[in-house]
Amino acid sequence: MLDENALPNISALIGSAEQGDKAATEVLFGSLYAELHRMAKRELAKRDGFVTISATTLLHEAYLDMSAREGKSFPDRARFMGYAARVMRTLIIDHARERQAQKRGGLFEITSIETKEIENPVDASEVARIGDALDELGKIEPVLAEIVDLKFFCGLSFTEIAALRSVSERTIQRNWERARLYLHRQISTDLPA
Amino acid sequence: MSTLSPEQWRALAPYLDQALEMDETQRSAWLSALAGEKPTLAAQLSPLLAEHARLAKVGFMDANPAVPQFSRQGLAGQVVGAYTLVSPIGQGGMGTVWLAKRNDGRFERRVAVKFLNQALVCGTNEERFKREGNILGRLKHPHIAELVDAGVSASGFPYIVLEYVEGDPITRYSDLQKLNIQDRIRLFLDVASAVAHAHANLIVHRDLKPSNVLVSKGGQVKLLDFGIAKLIETEDSENALTALTAPGGQVLTPEFAAPEQIAGAPVTTATDVYALGVLLYLLLTGQHPAGPSLRSPAQLVRAIVDTEPQRLSEIVTAAHADPKTVTDNAAQRTTTPDKLQRLLRGDLDPIVGKSLKKDPRERYASVTEFADDLRRYLNHEPISARPDTFAYRARKFIRRNRVPVSLAGLALAALVVGLAGTLIQARKAEQQRDSAFRERDRANRITTFMTDMFKTSDPSEAHGNSVTAREILDKAATQIDTGLSNDPAEQARMMYVMGQVYDSLGLMAKGRSLLERAVDLQQKMLGPEAPETLTSKSLLSVILLEQNNYAEAERLQSETLAARRRVLGLEHPDTVRSMSRLAGVYSWQGRNSEAEELEREALAIDRRVLGPEHPETLMLTNSLVAIYNAAEDSAHYEEAEKLQLDAFAAERRVFGPEHPDTLNAMYNMAALLRLEGRYGESERVYREMLPVLGRVLGPEHSDTLSLRNNLTIVLAKQGRYQEAEQLYRETRVIQQRVFGPNDSNAANSTYNLACLAAVQGHRDQALSLLAEALHHGLSPHTGVNMERDEDLKSLLGDPRFTALVAQGKKVAAAAQAPN
Predict the structure, then answer these.
(1) Which residues sit opposite B83 in a β-bridge?
(2) Which among B570, B492, B584 has a CA at the least distance from the CA of B535?
(3) Where are the alpha helices (DSSP H) in B38-152?
(4) Helix B508-526 vs helix B488-504: angle between axes, to the nearest 10 degrees?
(5) What region, left, alpha or beta, does residue B449 occupy, with left being phi > 0 and alpha being psi -120 to 50 degrees?
(6) Largest CA-CA distance found in chain B, in angstroms, rounded
(7) With an 8 Å Cβ cutoff, are B21 and A52 in contact?
(8) How close is the nearest chain B Cα to the Cα of A49, in Å?
(9) Phi/psi zone of residue B334: left (φ > 0), alpha (ψ -120 to 50 degrees), beta?
(10) According to the 3-state scheme, what is the secondary structure of B437-480?
C-alpha cells in the first residue's frame, strides 16, 4: 500500500514548474505518471477484466482525487489537464512499447476504445511512432501537441478542449487537423514506401 | 515525399490554417491562384491538402489508443465488491466465471463471481439489474445455488456473485456413478423440486442444461444461474422479471432450447418443463432427443421445431446409433440395451414424451405435475400422462378397427364416382354393399386402403398414398351437393357415408362438417330420434372424440344412447354399440373404471344376444382390450391378453384364416407391433401372413408386395440389414416385372435399398441407388422429403446428395405443375 502522506504535493510542483524549475517539472511529471498509473490500476481493479476505462474518466477522477487531497491551492482544471494529458500520453506510449516488447503477458493492454471499423486502426507500434512525432511537434507548436494529448490520448471532445482552452471549437478542430496532418506526414515517411 | 523540417512546417502552417477553413471548391480556386504567386509553396501545399482529405476519409487517429487494460491473469487478487478473485473457473456464453473469496475476513466463504459479457448487457440499467438481482437473491432452496450479490461496476458492467458449487454436471455424475434408471429419476426429482420452487416465486430458469445442474460428490444437486438468462436480456418491458410470459430469451443454448424459444414465442414455465424433459431424456438414454447426429445448428433447430423426438425406448437400441454407444449407455445405467429398452417402454415414454411436446399447452401444466408422474412411476402407481404408446395407439386402432363399415363406404364412394354419381346407381351400390364387401376384388381394394392408412400413420412414409382415395372422396363429396340436392334424405345418407370415410382417412374436419350437415338434415326430415339420425349422431360423437372435444362427444353419445334405449330397446346391437362408444369417450378422458364397467356390460349383452363369435361381439371384445390397455392397469393385463387372443382366434374361426377381415386384423396387429417397436413379434405375424397373401392374392399382387415391404422394414429395424437387402432386391425384381421399369413401387424399393446402404455407411452405394430411384419414377413426395429422411442423415453435407435433393425437388415441382 502506498502511504497517502508520502504523496508528492502536485500543486506545489506545478507552481515550481511554471516558475521554470526544470527539476520540479521532472518531479511533477514523474509524480503525475505514478499517480495516474496507480489510479488506473485502482479504477480497473474496482471494475473487472473486461472493462476498458477511458482515459478521460481516469483524468477526471485523478483531478478530483488530487484536488480533494490537496485542497484549495490545487491548480484549475485547465492547467492540470495540460500536464496530466501529457503524462497520460507518456503512460499510454510506455504501455504501447511494453506491449510491443512483450506482446503478451503484460499487466496492461492497450486497446482501442472505439469499436467501429477503422481503416487505419491505431496499433501499438503506430502509437509509439505517433508519440515520437508528437515530441517534435511539441517543440514547434506546443499548443497543437497539447490538443493531440487531450483529443487523441485522453479522448476529450473538441467541445471539452475548447472549453478548457477558452477558444472556439472550430479553432480546436482546425488545429487538430493540422496536427494530425503533421503527425501522419512524419510517421508515414518512417514506413517503407 | 520526405518529412517536413520545422522550418518548412512553420512556413506552411498559416497557409494550411487558411486552406482548412475553406470548402473543397474554394480551396482549389485558392490553390490555383496561389500557384501563380508562390509556385513552390503551392506545390508543397497541394499534396498535403490531398493527404488531409485522405486522412479525414479514413479517420486517421479518430480512434483513441488509450485504455490500459488488465489481462486476464492480472485479475487474480483483484477485488470485486466484498470479494477477492482467486482463479478463473470457466468461460461461458454469458461471461467469465471466477472463484473468489470474501475479503473482509469476517467469515471464510468461497463464491463464484460471474462477469457478464459486455455484449449481453446493452440496455441493462444498473437499477434494474440490482433490483432483479435482489429478487433472485431471495430465491432460497437447498437445490438452488444461492445468488449472493449482484452489482454493476462504475463503468456499467454487471457481475453476479453466486454460491460456489463444486461438482459434476448431472449427466456426467450419473454416468460416473453408474446410476440406474430409478436413481437417475430420484436425482432428477431434486432438480424438478428446485425448478418448481422457483416457478412458485415467478422465476423461470430459461437455460436449464446439464452444465447448469451440478451434483456434488455427496450427491447433492445444485442448480446454477436461475433467472440469469432473463437478467441479462435486453430490457423489453418494465415488469420484465415478474412477467413469466415476457418475450423470448436472447440467451439460450440451442441444444436445450424449447421450440417456442427458437421461434421467439413467449417463454413461460412450460419452457422449463421442456428443458427438463430434454435433461431427463439425456439422463435416461444418454442421447439427445433431437437425434444422435446433430451436424449443424440449422438441423438442430429443425429437429427442435419440427421433428418429433424418437421415443426413449426406441432410441436406446436405435439401429443408427453405433452398437458401442448402445452398450456403453446401457452399462452406465447398470443394465443391458434390451433391459433398458423394457424399462423405458412403459410409463417413461409417455412421461418424457409429454414434457417434450412441441406445443407448450400439451406439456405438463407444471413442473410439479411432471414430477408427480415420475414419483407415481417410482411407486408403481398409474401415471397421468396420456400414454402416447400402446394404449394411445390402441385407442386409435380401435377406432380404425371399426373401419370395415367405412371401407364399404369407400367402395361405395368409388362406385358413386365410377358410375357418374347418379342417385339410382348410388342406391344400387349401397344395396350391394355387404355382398360386394366380401368379393375378392373389393377385399383387395380394402387391403390396399388399409395399407395406405397405416402408411400414412407412419411418419416415415409418404402421405401421397392416400391421395387417390381422397381424390375419389372429394369428387364424390362435391357430387352430394350437386347431384343429390333434390333428395335431402339420400343426400343426408351420402353425407353420412362420406363423413365416415373421411373420418377413417383421418380427415376429421371434413368428416365432421359432413356429419353435422347429415344430422341437421335428418333431424329436420326424419326427427331427432329416428334410427338414421341417431346413427349419424353417434358417428359424429366419435369424430368429436378424435378431435379431443370430449364434452361434446359425451353429450351426443349419451343422448344417442338414451334415445336408442327408448326407440330400439336396451339390447339392440345399435344401443349396445352406443354403450361401447360412450365407454370409449370415458376411456379417452381417463375415466377408466366407468369405461371398463360400461364396455363389459355392453360386451355381456352382445355375447348373450348375438353370440360370442358374432363380428359385433368380436369388435366389442377388441374395444374392451383397448380400454384395459389404456388404463394401463396391470390387474387386467392377463385378462386383456387372453381376450385379445380369443377374439383373434374367433375371427379366424368365424371368417377363416384367409378372409380379408382376418388378414386385415393380422395386418393391423403386425403394424401395431411394428409401431410399438416390438419388431420381432411384428415380423412373426408378417411372416405368417406372407404365404397366405401369396396364395390368396398371388405373389405379384401389390398387397403381397406391400407386405414384403413392411416385413423388410421390420428386419431393418432389427439391424438385420443383409436379410432386409435380400428381400428388397427380390421385391424389386417382381415390381419391375409386374409394373415396369419406371414404376414408383420399384423406385421406392430402390430408395429403401439406398436407405439401407446409408445406415450401414455405404455412402457411394447409397448415392447411386438414390440416383437410380430418382431416374426411375420415385414418388415425388418421397423425393422431396429425402433430406429429412432419418436414414439418409449420414449423407447430409455431401455435395452429391445435395444435388440429388435438388433434383428430387425439381421432379416434385414438375409433378405438381399443371400440364
Answers:
(1) B80, B102
(2) B492
(3) 39-58, 126-137
(4) 150
(5) alpha
(6) 128
(7) no
(8) 6
(9) left
(10) HHCHHHHHHHHHHHHHHHHHHCCCCCHHHHHHHHHHHHHHHHHH
Answer whether B66 sits within 8 Å of A113, measured CB to CB.
yes
Q: Which of A139, A153, A185 sits opposite B65 (nearest CB)?
A: A153
Decide: helix, strand or coil at residue B257.
Answer: coil
- More confident position, B520 or B703: B520
CB B159, CB B150: distance < 8 Å: yes
DSSP 8-state code for residue A49: T
d(CA B606, CA B705): 38
Each residue's pLDDT tens digit, A116-171: 223 334 566 778 888 889 988 988 898 999 999 888 888 788 888 888 888 888 89
Residue B123 region, left (φ>0) first, then alpha (ψ -120 to 50), else beta?
A: left
- The residue that leads in pLDDT, B382 or B214, is B214
According to DSSP, the residues that pair with B98 across neighbouring strands are B88, B113
Report the length, in residues, of chain A. Answer: 193
What pLDDT is recorded for position B474?
64
ipTM attached to this prediction? 0.74
- Residues in chain B closer than 8 A to A148 (CB atoms): 61
In B455-567, DSSP assigns E strands to none
Strand pairing category for B168-169 and B213-215: antiparallel
Kindly calculate the radius of gyration of chain A based on its CA atoms and give it in whole angstroms. Answer: 17
pLDDT tens, B696-709? 666 776 667 778 88
Task: Please identify which residue in the block is written with the cell numbers 518512417.
Answer: A190
More confident residue, A167 or B693: A167
Contact list, B66 vs chain A (CB under 8 Å) = 52, 54-55, 92, 110, 112-113, 153-155
Q: In this structure, what C-alpha cell is assigned to residue B493?
A: 345418407
B3 with A120: Cβ contact below 8 A: no
The alpha carbon dihedral of A120, A124, A125, A129 has a sign of: positive
Instruction: Provide the 10 A C-beta neighbour count for residue B235.
Output: 12
| Distance between A174 CA and the closest CA of chain B, angstroms | 7
On average, the pLDDT of chain A sits at 71
Residue from A176, A29, A140, A153 nearest B68 by CA: A153
Where are chain A's structural domains? 4-110+117-188
Exposure string of B264-281, with b = 16+ CB inside 10 Å and e = fewer, is: eebbbbbbbbbbbbbbbb
pTM: 0.39
DSSP lists the bridge partners of residue B91 as: B96
Give the span between the Cα atoms of B337 and B324, in whole angstroms. Answer: 11
- Residue B584 has a pLDDT of 87
H helices of chain A, in order, are 10-18, 22-46, 55-70, 77-102, 124-140, 142-148, 158-165, 169-188
Residue B190 has pLDDT above 70, yes or no: yes
If you measure CA to CA, which chain A residue comes closest to B62? A152
Which of A120, A118, A104, A84 has its CA nearest to residue A10?
A: A84
Q: Residue A162 and residue B759: Cα distance in Å, rounded?
A: 74
- Using the beta-carbon criterion (under 8 Å), do A55 and B70 form an inter-chain contact? no
Listed in sequence order, the residues at least 6 apart from B323 whose beta carbon sits closer than 8 Å to its beta carbon are: none
* Beta carbons of B51 and A109 less than 8 Å apart: no
Predicted confidence at residue B167, as pLDDT, reads 87
Which residue blocks in B100-257 are alpha helix, DSSP H? 126-137, 170-176, 181-200, 228-231
Rounded to a whole number of angstroms, the CA Rg of chain B reads 36
The mean pLDDT value for B433-460 works out to 33
- C-alpha count within 13 angstroms, C-beta hemisphere, residue B541: 27
Question: Nearest C-alpha of chain A: how many angstroms from B196?
Answer: 34
Q: Cα–Cα distances in Å, from B535 out to B551, B572, B580?
A: 19, 13, 14
Selected residue of A41, A42, A43, A47 to mutate for chain B interface (largest B Cβ count, 10 A) = A47
Query: Which pLDDT tens digit goes with each residue over B791-801?
Result: 888 898 889 99
